[in-house]
Give the backbone structure.
Amino acid sequence: AQSVTQLGSHVSVSEGALVLLRCNYSSSVPPYLFWYVQYPNQGLQLLLKYTSAATLVKGINGFEAEFKKSETSFHLTKPSAHMSDAAEYFCAVSVRGTSYGKLTFGQGTILTVHP
Amino acid sequence: NAGVTQTPKFQVLKTGQSMTLQCAQDMNHNSMYWYRQDPGMGLRLIYYSASEGTTDKGEVPNGYNVSRLNKREFSLRLESAAPSQTSVYFCASSGGTGVYEQYFGPGTRLTVT
């Protein structure tokens, strides 16, 4: 069975600072990996996904994530935080080979951006 | 193209009452899912439907039932609501081909008193 651990339930940064949200996964087979963002009182929106085509994945809003198999990690980064990035972020893993793409989510990380 | 829609947006129930949460998608997706979201616990899968005509239990199915009415619609029923079912409920769908990212509805905020 697969699992996801997000290190840090809350991360606080200053506007313009680097954003780093950590995600480690466990999977017995090569995984698909995702980052989703949830703004207050909204549903989840896909930020980016790892499909094995490239280990560095670029997503929307200037975010990117790097798949590191040796570290079983898929950390999310953004070089310069903006106030509009304040939201909750979820890492998720899906097992390849299934026909229905069931996702397992981490507990989420709330990102706060200070002026 | 509305994506995934959910009704209602908000609901307050008394303990023991029943209700059905509705979900529909217009993306011709094969798979649909119901999650609940509670603070600090991420999203937990209640039930899913891999394809029309099939449903399976997820991580937290107790107290819920589902119906995959057709390819578009997937409903979640609470037969006898309990305060522990106070949560935000999300429906999602995925195409089932290629990389299986899921597309989420806006959620239903349910309070059981």
User: Anything to note?
Assistant: Chain A has a mean pLDDT of 91.
